[in-house]
Amino acid sequence: MTSLAGKTLFVTGGSRGIGLAIAKKAAADGANVIIAAKTDEPHPKLPGTIHTAAAEIEEAGGKALPVVCDIRDDSAVEAAVAQGAEAFGGIDIVVNNASAIALLGTEEIAMNRFDLMHQVNARGTFLVSKTCLPWLKQAENPHILMLSPPLNMLEKWFAPHVAYSMSKYGMSMCVLGMAGEFRELGIAVNALWPRTTIATAAVNMLGGDELMMHSRKPEIMADAAYVIVTRPSREFTGNFCIDDSVLEDEGISDLSAYAVNPELPLAPDFFVDPK
User: Fold this and answer.
1) Apex 74 CA angle, 68 and 77, nearest 5
2) Active site residue 164
3) Nearest-5° angle of CA 185, CA 120, CA 192?
């Protein structure tokens, strides 16, 4: 399979950043994209809404359905999935991109922030995947893709921010378990994570313009995601992929175009070692 033409993607948190980049990459093939995110009205600090994202997707060549959806809410997810499947006749690919982050130690973090991360990252990912399952069973080449890290159970990935790490690894445990559970159904479940920081609003909030300049553009994640979800679902499942490795496996050795500033060293992301 080499194209997403006519395929329908359900993308969580796709109003900006990596989720939007993945949606636009698929749209260039003529895909349908259900944008399920909370941002209906402009945010005072963050760019983009589900409506601006939908306009960009359609400009890229696809069809878009913007749906207000808080993935912590069971009924909201059920309604968004039903609305999207009705609009486009099904769902072929699920991209669990929505995520919450708070890089705080155990003593510093408030429990409401702990709860938010676990409700969005681990529970939200599980809920969206579960709710889309009836449609994925009917799809020709169904994929679930989590934006989550490899399961490297090392102290250094947990100690600085136990709560956040637990929530992201919760997403990755969904990959490990669901890949095995859904294998006989032919539904692929994989993870994708960046080697470096990615120039998104979240990274800008964490490290400002300086960190942004040492990051790669979201397009590297979009191109890697495209490679994964166009692979045969019965042959490629249960993998924890890193963006640059996916592209290098496809013969793309020069990744300098993805750097915000190719003259600066790249900042490593969490949960993976730099090359």
Assistant:
1) 35
2) yes
3) 55
Nearest CA to 215 out of 246, 261, 176 is that of 261
pTM: 0.96
Report if residue 56 sits inside a domain: yes
CB of 131 within 8 A of CB of 84? Answer: no
Question: pLDDT digit string (tens) for 132-148?
Answer: 999 999 999 999 999 99
d(CA 124, CA 168): 11
Range of the domain at 243: 8-258
Is 263 domain-assigned? no
Distance CA 155, CA 139 (A): 40
Residue 165 domain-assigned (yes or no): yes
Task: Name the burial class of residue 253, with classes exposed (0-12), middle (13-18) and buried (19+) by CB atoms within 10 angstroms of its CB.
Answer: exposed
Give the Cα separation of 157 and 151 in Å (integer).
10
Structural domain count of the chain: 1
Lay out the sheet containing 188-193: strands in order across: 63-68, 32-37, 8-12, 93-96, 143-146, 188-193, 240-242
Which one is catalytic: 164, 169, 226, 258? 164
Separation of CA 132 from chain center: 15
CATH of the domain at 195: 3.40.50.720
| Residue 1 resides in a domain | no
pLDDT digits (tens, 9 = 90+) for 140-199: 999 999 999 999 999 999 999 999 999 999 999 999 999 999 999 999 999 999 999 999
Residue pair 216/259 in contact by the 8 Å Cβ criterion:
yes
Amino acid at 270: F
